[in-house]
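Predict fold of Chaperonin 10-like protein; 346 aa.
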Amino acid sequence: MTCMTDNGFDITVFKGSPSGKIVASTTHKDSLKPDEVLLKITHAGLCGTDLHYKTSGIVLSHEGVGIVQQIGPEVTNFKIGDRAGWGYLHNSCGHCDECLSGNEIFCSERAMYGEADKDQGGFASHAIWKAGFLFHIPDEISSSEAAPLMCAGATVFNAMHLYGMIPTDRVGIIGVGGLGHLAIQFAAKMGCQVVVFSGTKGKENEAKKLGASEFYETKDMQALEIGAPLKHLFVTTSQQPDWNCYLNTLAPHAKIYPLTVSADALSLPYMQLVVNGITLQGSICPSRGTHIKMLRFAALHHIKPIIEEFPLTEAGIEEAIQKLENGEVRYRAVLVAQNDIAGKSK
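Predicted 3D structure, encoded as tokens:
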């Protein structure tokens, strides 16, 4: 809950801890600044990145959705009662070359999850953010479905939107999981021929329902034979693939996009990249303009994450984390505020 006092706001939050246990705590904010918005959080997504921070003591979750409860006097783009969400990026300088080019995600002074604002997150009763870094949720998307789009959906759309993928391209997606099941939908709705690779044969029917044109099981594979080569390859698995197999599926000038977070070194066969002009393209969550386009595209084409809901409590977060660590979530976990379960906020 949040308690507004003469001294500001006391907000209930859920943090990680050195043991990995989720603990309830309180974040205090002195006031609502002129350009800020107070949100009552109704839904928050659990991302694989949260697992990397569960022992760091920060408030977890960067996939938050809620209802606007108060606005600062300078806020003109939100009103009380609006639904709004936020993702990885909370602020930027606004005046560097990257910001002025619409690439504020690369601002050297960016405020991002895990690096700044560690006393706030999606796993909380409320949050206070700058209005300029919040996003309106389209009516076509429920709040529970919107939460995973704040990071997972935004991440895959960003790579597809920014780096030259066109509707006539043949694209590969490695993995049918939290990122992969959304990547299949976005690529298919963009008009691409979508080739899916998975170590689980049982996911073939689901992958094709999501929009895959072809499906290849990769468990114990020695080589990949897929016919026409791929122009883009999106790696959505937590483990690196067998690059020797996958590089042989790529067309000249193809691009590879590693989309998951890992502290491991990236090791690729050198000569195949050089002689075929292959690009290894880094990509992160989008800047705001692309994020807004992602939401519009998802609303127009009815792109929806497959979710499992858990209560937004210490026990609920613990359960969701345990299932994610065990690889049992299908495919995004969403924590739902208890007072929202009965009301089912849109």
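The mean pLDDT is 95.
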